[in-house]
Please model this.
Amino acid sequence: DTGVSQNPRHKITKRGQNVTFRCDPISEHNRLYWYRQTLGQGPEFLTYFQNEAQLEKSRLLSDRFSAERPKGSFSTLEIQRTEQGDSAMYLCASRERQGGGGIEKLFFGSGTQLSVL
Amino acid sequence: DAKTTQPPSMDCAEGRAANLPCNHSTISGNEYVYWYRQIHSQGPQYIIHGLKNNETNEMASLIITEDRKSSTLILPHATLRDTAVYYCIVRNTNAGKSTFGDGTTLTVKP
Model:
């Protein structure tokens, strides 16, 4: 178990540029989540996948944001035409396949810190 | 998912028990209580969860009141490394996501 891996750890970009983050979940975890966190706040849900299907998207996920999880393995989160308000920590989490009971135990990566200048 | 209320901050002396409260007065019957913590510059880490019985693992104990409207996370012998933000979450078994509030910042002091 190598844990959830996120790359890059830090990203500095200029306003208007596109950025893409990658998340590699724990192998065989079927659910993958993206959260965003700003300083002093708890993580805010953005979207999640079950295998390759994107099942829910937050209203926070504007049309400049897109997430994919091809083949149900790693996931990417792209932000187009970045704005200064996009500056935040972007966290990825995965959850193993659950049997009955619906217990949700998330494993988080260390996040990607985005700074938009 | 039910909303939770936590104090914004707490202090604890090293070696003492840290008792972190969480209010979830609108919890429904099929909602579990989960606790996570987040150490600076890391992602949140799962600690423990429970439905209605008290639970204990190697990290902490979870005490849920009989009416399930509140719970307490207990770190029995807090160390400096337990300084973190602690999040209490209530989640429906069928929900797609876990909703985090702003948590309690616990500072363990020597």
Q: What stands out?
A: The mean pLDDT of chain B is 93.
